[in-house]
Amino acid sequence: MDSSWKSRLGAGRRGWKRGPAGVHRQAQSELCGVGGGGGGGRAAVGAQPGAKQLAPSFQLRRAAWSEDAENGEAEEVVTQDEKQLLNTPATLKCSLQSSQEVLVVTWQKKKAVSPENMVTFSKNHGVVVQPAYKDKLNITQLGLQNSTITFWNTTLEDEGCYMCLFNTFGSGKISGTSCLTLYVQPIVSLHYKFFEDHLNITCSATARPAPVISWKVAGSGIENSTESLSHPNGTTSVTSVLHVKDPKTQVGKEVICQVLHLGKVMDFRQTMNKGFWFSVPLLLSIVSLVILLILISILLYWKRHRNQDRECQRNCFGFSQL
């Protein structure tokens, strides 16, 4: 009887310890966009009585638990990933969802070898920014349970993941991770050019991350080629060219260049204007005819002027004889 009771108690404890990890795996699966395990992850959250519902206002949140906690309560840290326009201010938030006494809040940047301290906050020392980050960021929400850092003007070096560490009294360090992604809105150009035997329609888009270009065009005999070029400022230019073998089939028709960037599709439309299309032989014929007419006009003018000079000479000579 006693051993059976202990066995059930041990199983209950093991199941309880797996609860936070199960919820943590659910948060990780949502982060990575894993669709197959979505149902199982939701079931795990629903089966955990102590798990807290993530607020719907957050687009993407993480939950973490202290490995040092020994009192049996999951210490949840809620963070939010951010996407921000490059060269603009950006904020990262971190919130400790427990009543633990926090002594110091530390923000670190994750790096390949080891995390790098950026800024700390405590009641005794206030805000302390490391020299390498003095002109880049600061803690803009002075709290021990809720902390916010703000980058004054984001650069490419600021993109990455950051850790907020809550140093608590009696429970050790409790951490959460928030990632910052920087983007540049697409700059798009769409133009076309008629040739003697083909038509080229070019759509170019420069953005960060790299955009994806697709087309909506009617007709046959159309080939597509795409090239990408990376720039030092972190943007990528993607150029897509449609090669139309029979240009006359596209005169007066509309072509749509679709640019996909950060999940949003933008349409750019262009109508193939007949006024911009010329047949090279026809153009040469027109130019030749104009030149010929000019030469004939010059020749006629010269002959007329010469005849007038001769007539004047005869008249003048006749008067002199008289």
Automatic annotation (TrEMBL):
One of its GO terms (cellular component) is neuronal cell body. CDD domains: IgV_1_MRC-OX-2_like. Keywords: Disulfide bond, Glycoprotein, Immunoglobulin domain, Membrane, Signal, Transmembrane, Transmembrane helix. GO terms for biological process: cellular response to lipopolysaccharide; cellular response to type II interferon; heterotypic cell-cell adhesion; negative regulation of canonical NF-kappaB signal transduction; negative regulation of macrophage activation; negative regulation of matrix metallopeptidase secretion; negative regulation of neuroinflammatory response; positive regulation of macrophage activation. One of its GO terms (molecular function) is cell-cell adhesion mediator activity. The keyword Repressor does not apply. InterPro entries: CD200_Ig_V_dom (IPR033321), Ig-like_dom (IPR007110), Ig-like_dom_sf (IPR036179), Ig-like_fold (IPR013783), Ig_sub (IPR003599), Ig_V-set (IPR013106), Immunoglobulin_dom (IPR013151), OX2G-like (IPR047164). Residues 33-43 have a biased composition (Gly residues). It is a single-pass type I membrane protein. SUPFAM superfamilies: Immunoglobulin. It is found in: Membrane. Residues 56-181 form the Ig-like domain. Residues 1-50 are annotated as: Disordered. The keyword Lipoprotein does not apply. It holds the Pfam family ig. Its main location: membrane. The chain crosses the membrane at residues 276-302. This is CD200 molecule. The gene is CD200.
